[in-house]
Design goal:
By secondary structure, chain A is α+β, with helices and mostly antiparallel strands. Chain A has 3 helices and 9 strands. In chain A, strands 3, 4, 6, 8 and 9 form a 5-stranded antiparallel sheet that branches. In chain A, strands 1-5-7-2 form a 4-stranded mixed sheet, with helices on both faces. Classes of the chains: A alpha+beta, B alpha+beta. The A-B interface holds A 31, 47-50, 52-54, 56, 78, 89-90, 110, 113-122, 131-137 and B 6, 8-10, 13, 50, 54, 57-59, 73, 75-81.
């Protein structure tokens, strides 16, 4: 499952999506909006995507994971639009027979997402705003 | 031929457009499109080193050849997560 959604993310629903009778482990990554960055107080974040390409890149990450590790299921759900501090921006869940593959694949999924999926965030401060890029997120 | 160019995030904000059409000679490369875009939107110059181009929803090299009707996207450094 690869989705970009406007509404608040339901972590349990993403975890349920990767449930599998063959799995002995589910590893999740939950990204949340932090109240500070670059020495400034962050009030909110705004996410924008190029949805058609983002879906294709998430599908590619899925294939890369399957080529590297024996996992059961993978789910990535990313929120779009304006998010307040503390809200969940991304949920990744991976299930596998044994925990090692799920841990590695989950880490890989978030790292590759940050590297190649066309999604952008803008930090909104008390005195302005700034598009974030090049590993600054 | 004509290609459609979409701008995102800081690139969209900088050029002030979401989407433009660009006329090119048959057989033009991504590099020649990029030069045409810089001429049309000189404000992209300062960030040009950090921008990537995608054609039909995938990253491409500058020497890739464009076709009529291609969808090109100007991709600033991504920052999802």
């Amino acid at each position: 499952m690869f989705q970009m959604v406007e509404e608040p993310l339901d972590i349990q629903a993403v975890v349920k999506h990767v449930s599998d009778p063959a799995a002995g482990a589910v590893v999740t990554f939950v990204g949340t909006v932090r109240d500070h960055a670059r020495g400034k107080r962050v009030l909110s974040l705004e996410y924008e995507a190029y949805p058609e390409m983002a879906e294709r890149m998430l599908q590619r990450i899925h294939e890369e994971i399957r080529a590297r590790w024996d996992v059961c299921k993978i789910a990535v759900v990313h929120r779009m639009g304006r998010l307040q501090v503390g809200e969940v921006s991304v949920v990744i869940a991976v299930s596998s027979a044994h925990r090692e593959e799920a841990f590695k694949a989950c880490r890989y999924a978030i790292d590759r997402t940050k590297e190649m999926v066309p999604i952008w965030k803008k930090e909104v401060y008390e005195d302005g705003e700034c598009w974030i890029g090049e590993g600054g997120g | 031929m004509t290609v459609n160019v979409r701008f995102f995030a800081i690139a969209r904000q900088t050029v002030g457009e979401r989407e433009v059409e660009v006329e090119l000679k048959e057989g033009s490369t991504v590099q020649s499109l990029w030069e045409a875009l810089l001429k049309r939107f000189p404000r992209l110059h300062p960030m040009s080193g950090s921008l990537k181009l995608a054609v039909n929803w995938d990253y491409v090299q500058p020497e890739a050849v464009l076709c009529d009707g291609d969808e090109v996207a100007v991709i600033p450094p991504v920052s999802g997560g």
